[in-house]
Amino acid sequence: LQTPRKGESNYSTESTYLPDPNKQPSKYAYEMFALIYTPIWIFLFGIIVVFQLYEDFDAFTYNTVLGVLALPLVLQPLLFPSAGFNSPDKNRSFWERYSTKANVWIAVYSFIGNYWYTHYFYSVLKAEYTMPATRLNNVPICMFFATHFYFTTYHVFSNVLLRKVITTYEAGPMRVVLFAGVILVFSYFTAFMETLSISSFPYYSFEDRDMAYTVGSAFYGIYFFVSFPGFYSFDQEVDSGKPINMWNTVV
Q: CB–CB of 162/229 below 8 Å?
């Protein structure tokens, strides 16, 4: 049902998961850095959960630990702008760097999700955080820190999948259907797996856990329906002389 994408010489173009390091070096460097850091934060986070180290955490410890796990992503544009992959960001001012704007984009979207959209789970599913925490709008601030590295990984992986579709098949109605289908499936998968993985954490509870896994995941997945394609198309021309500014990043 899909037509392989053709190049100028009528041969199939390269089908790829990652940005072209020659045409999109800024995105390539950012995504590679995030992909390398992802198994590191998962491993460290897993140790905390498996060995129940959180049992000795107070509010300050939660903020510190989750804040530290987010720091490599947050500080990379400032302290390591090349990202280890010769990103052009090293030659840009801090606020013009793609990695800076990507971090701000994720942070803004995470803030909205934590301090507005999360209240669906509070009101409908009767979700509740019961660990000691510094709170804003009744949501632990440490969850905002955790969401930053969670969402960075989610959105880089969604970029990988959506880019594979775009670079593999010719534009047309069937590619649009496949593109939308990938967003739909990966959104639900991401939401369900996060809900399932957090189920072992005793201080985040639901009144009806089965409903949280099924219906709750579906509603959570709606949040990604917008953000996955949005982040994929975000600042696409940063390396072509048409970058977006910080104001447009935020709004």
A: yes
